């Protein structure tokens, strides 16, 4: 080993030991009682010491300077943050410098410091900052650690001279909007990023960057002194910033690495580190997350006030009054502003009037900082008397009745806490998490998302998204009734008990207090009670059975109830998670709606008339495709009534066209086509039936990353399986037309192969979310009302290979699958199978099948 490397190795060992000795007790003290600001400043200080030691060990020239930039430049470090440094060079070139700088950076890494490093001259820094606002931001808080003071001062002077505060403000606000859009503009994700999500630490840092660039101050106290915020707002900002910093630091310590996302796995231990304890109704993690959401909400609200105030000072010529709207309100550059600071204190009715005016006034896109601040200060006025004031009740209903702006108004009311203060039970579910593997939003955000979906049905510009829903709501008298139902459908979650039943009482009280008619009240209460029913019937029951349709029609009673429930159901499913809704579910719901509407209109739920109608429609389609007259009979004579009731006319026509020449074939026939109803592949299988057939087909789909959305299984009178599958590839960007031929060839070849179709099932890995919140596997096997079939219901965490594991157990017991309804709800599955009853009447056999199924679906 050369003497140079030996010295470097010795220095690295010594410096690393010193750094560890200094850092370990800091983290140990923080786990018990240390203040987060003390920790972060201390971590920055010992990091400075370590870097100075490495700088000295590498004998770098005195004409260079080492700068801390980014968050490290502020003199703060979270336990496992990146350490951003800049090696600042004089503009004159220096020989043999690169090797020495590389040795310094390598030595710093050897110390265990996760560096983000750059090496630039002063001129290069100024040039890079002019081209990249991220570089400009990181240099804003540059701090000298070691090296030339003269060089650092030269850099600081040139940087300040080049900095344009107005351009910097505009760039950072645009950057913030883009960042917020990545998080769907909400702080209420179930796994938020403490640093980057709306309402996170980055929003607070951004404000201080802007004010520092503008010379307004670099702390909340300085902004208070300048009049940009009030003393109370400064205290709120400091308190919430302290909480978010503490949360992030504890998360780093708990994870043992840089970790800024509050993933489900760490929420419980993190909550316990704060002293939260689980209760009979709420997990410790839910209590912590509720505290986080309230902090993020406050940061969002106060940040909006601050940014508007900063903008008014940076651009004073464009901050004047645009127009006078009333004695109480004016418009300032597209923002609604109060005419006097005490208007809400003097006239509390003006609080709700502000949101109504926001909806009614074209060009107004938000509330001004002055208005937001006045709302914040008028919280005490939003009390019991304010809620019971008849004028306020009228105003609230007017807000719901407006032709536009309802969604934005309600979101703004929630952000400003006005909605929760008007509807106290809504306040209880603000920040309430939902650990059901189905919803990806907190309860309040889900409710507002459902309201937003309902409103989109009524907006002409969005009619192309769900034209049938838009058509129905256009003819729905008093659609605000549906908005009330949307507001209350989940409002009782988290109280214990059935939230649908508990929510009925809240909805009834609201309707009574707001003078809604008895009929509208009854509809709202009924919708809240039954908001899950239509989804359950469509996805879990055999809607080809006329008795199922009749029972549902009896429950619904009227077309208005049916239409309201259908619209609420579609809006609700779409408001749970982007993964849950698909076109197939939409078709199931629409088919149920149309079938029920026919019964409500006087049509008898008669299987024979339904059969005849579908056959006639299918024949009409076959004629268009030039299929010979009566060619269908060879196949149709072999099919039972159930086949025609389970398939629509288009599918019957397609399958008949494919199979009418091959009814007695000895060769398996597989045909695939892009689904007519959405992004999926429709697969037809026709082959001599055998006990392991369904399981074998599921095994093929599983091995090829094709998830089964629906399976309609029929057995002909002469022993052939005629199975129709709707499958979706796990990768979103697959072109189904491209893979159709491959599926046809491979699956047909597999079916032709002799021997068993059943490989050993391999249990796929559960998702991280499912591992954190496992679903208790449930299996329910019972005879249907007629005793002809058995209905198998399965509930479990979703994972690759699950359907095949179920099908394999049924195949081993020679239980035939007559139909399958595959229902994936986020990370949970609720599958229903209609099984041939032969052999299942024996209780001992039933128990054996259920036991093996439970074993197969268990994690």
From TrEMBL:
The keyword Transferase applies. Uridylyltransferase (UTase) activity is inhibited by glutamine, while glutamine activates uridylyl-removing (UR) activity. One of its GO terms (biological process) is regulation of nitrogen utilization. One of its GO terms (molecular function) is [protein-PII] uridylyltransferase activity. Residues 443-558 form the HD domain. Residues 1-324 are annotated as: Uridylyltransferase. Residues 682-762, 791-859 form the ACT domain. Its cofactor is Mg(2+). It comes from the Bacteria. Keywords: Hydrolase, Magnesium, Multifunctional enzyme, Nitrogen fixation, Nucleotidyltransferase, Repeat, Transferase. It catalyses: [protein-PII]-L-tyrosine + UTP = [protein-PII]-uridylyl-L-tyrosine + diphosphate; [protein-PII]-uridylyl-L-tyrosine + H2O = [protein-PII]-L-tyrosine + UMP + H(+). Gene3D superfamilies: 3.30.70.260, Hypothetical protein af1432, Nucleotidyltransferases domain 2. Its EC number is 2.7.7.59, 3.1.4.-. Belongs to the GlnD family. PANTHER family: BIFUNCTIONAL URIDYLYLTRANSFERASE/URIDYLYL-REMOVING ENZYME, BIFUNCTIONAL URIDYLYLTRANSFERASE_URIDYLYL-REMOVING ENZYME. Has four distinct domains: an N-terminal nucleotidyltransferase (NT) domain responsible for UTase activity, a central HD domain that encodes UR activity, and two C-terminal ACT domains that seem to have a role in glutamine sensing. Modifies, by uridylylation and deuridylylation, the PII regulatory proteins (GlnB and homologs), in response to the nitrogen status of the cell that GlnD senses through the glutamine level. Under low glutamine levels, catalyzes the conversion of the PII proteins and UTP to PII-UMP and PPi, while under higher glutamine levels, GlnD hydrolyzes PII-UMP to PII and UMP (deuridylylation). Thus, controls uridylylation state and activity of the PII proteins, and plays an important role in the regulation of nitrogen fixation and metabolism. This is Bifunctional uridylyltransferase/uridylyl-removing enzyme. It comes from Paraburkholderia phymatum (strain DSM 17167 / CIP 108236 / LMG 21445 / STM815) (Burkholderia phymatum). The lineage of its organism: Bacteria, Pseudomonadati, Pseudomonadota, Betaproteobacteria, Burkholderiales. The gene is glnD.
